[in-house]
# Entry
Amino acid sequence: MPPGAATQRGAEMAAIESVLHARRSDARIADWLDEIDAGALDPAGQAQVREIRRAFERARKVPGDLAARIAQVTSEAQGKWAAARQDDDFAAFAPVLEEVVALKREEGAALAAGGDIYDAMLDDYEPGMTGAALDRIFGEMRPVLVDLRAAVLDQPMPKGVRGPFDEAAQMELARRIATVFGYDLGHGRVDKAVHPFSSGSGLDVRITTRTSAEDPFNCLYSTIHEVGHAAYEQGIDRAYLLTPLGRGVSMGVHESQSRIYENQIGRSRAFCEWLYAQMTDAFGDLGVANADAFYAAVNRVQNGYIRTEADEVQYNLHIMLRLDLERALMTGDLQVADLEAAWNDRFAADFGYQVDKASDGVLQDVHWSVGLFGYFPTYSLGNVYAGCLHDALRAAVPDLDDQLARGETAAATGWLRENLQQHGGLYAPAEIIERASGQAPTAGPLLRYLKDKFGTLYGV
Ligand code: ZN
# Structure
C-alpha cells in the first residue's frame, strides 16, 4: 500500500468493521441460539454452537462505534509504527500508541464486564487462559531459563556456518523441506516476503519465508515454523471446512505446532544429520566439520535483541518482558510515555546489556501497533504445549530419531495430525493438549527438554 493511503485505509477498515460488527452482534442470533436443543447434537455440533455463542457474546459486549474506531486507529498506527521503526524514533510512534492503548483498555473493560481486563484480552487468543495461570507457568520457567542462559553463555560459542549461500538454492531447499514435513502444495504455496507468515485455512493455506545470503537457517527454520502452522490448518477434518471449528483452536495451540516442527523435530540432532547432508549437497562446504558441529551451529545460543531471532533458551525471556509491560499498560500502571525507558531498563536487567536503538528494542514488534495485547504470551504457551506434545510423541514413536535422521517426518507429523490437528476447534486449548499428551499442560516437559539438550550441547 502506498504510504499516503493509510488514512483512507483506516476509514475503509472502520466501515467494514461496522458492517461485520452489526452482523456479529445481531440480537436475532441470541434467539436462534436459544432455539437449539444442544443435547440433541453430536459433540461437533455442540462445539459449533459453543463457538458461535462465544463469538456472539464477545461481539455483543463491545459497542459498534468502539469496534470501528479500533479498526481505524490500528490500521493507521501500523504504518506509523513502521515509519518510526525505520527512523528509530519511539517519540514519533508514542501519540498513536497512546490512542491504541486507550481504545484497547476501553474494549478490555467492556469485555471484562467488571472482571480482569487482561484476562479478557487473553481470552481472545487463548480461550480459558488467565493472568494468574500465566504467572504460575512463567514463575516456574523463569528461574530455570535464567540459570540455563547464564551457564550456556559462560561457555565458548560454537562455530556458525560460513556463506554466502545462494538465495535461489535456499528457496529450492525450503520448498523441499516443506514437502518433507507434509505441507500439501496442492493446497498451499511458498513465497518470499519481508516477514515469514502463514495465512488461510482449509483448502488454501499459504506461507511466506525470507532469505539471507549469510544465514541460511533464517530461511530454512522460518519455513519449517510456518509449515507447522500451515500443516495444522491443512490437517483439520474437512467436515469442519468454513465452520467455526475449521480453524486452529487458539494462538497457543497453533504455536505449539510451529514450534514442535521447528525446534523439537527440526532442530533435533537426528534431523540435523539429514539436513547437514542436504545442505552440503546444495551449497558445498558449510564451514563446519561434520553433522555434530552443524547441530551445534543450528542451536547456537548468543546475545541478541530480537525476539524472532532468539534461540530456544532465551526466547521465553523475551516474552516475559513483553507480558509484564503490556499488562502494566492495560492496567494503567505504565504510561506509553514511559514505555521505552521501561523496556530498556527491563531488557538490561534480564539480558545484561543495553538496547542500542529503538528498532532493536520497543519498536521491534508490530503487535502493539495493531492492538494485539494479550497475544505475546501465546508464543510461550506454544513452547510449553510443544514440550508436552514432544514427550508423548517420543513415547508413541520410539524410533523417531532413526526416522528423522533419514529425513522422514511422516510418523511425527502423522501423530500430530491424528492426535491434535484434525480436531480443529472441537476441544478447548488446554483440553486438546491434555488429550494429545496425556497430561494437563505444564512447563515441566519443556524445561527438562531444554536442560537436557543445551546441557549436553554446552557441557553444563
Ligand atoms: Zn508462529
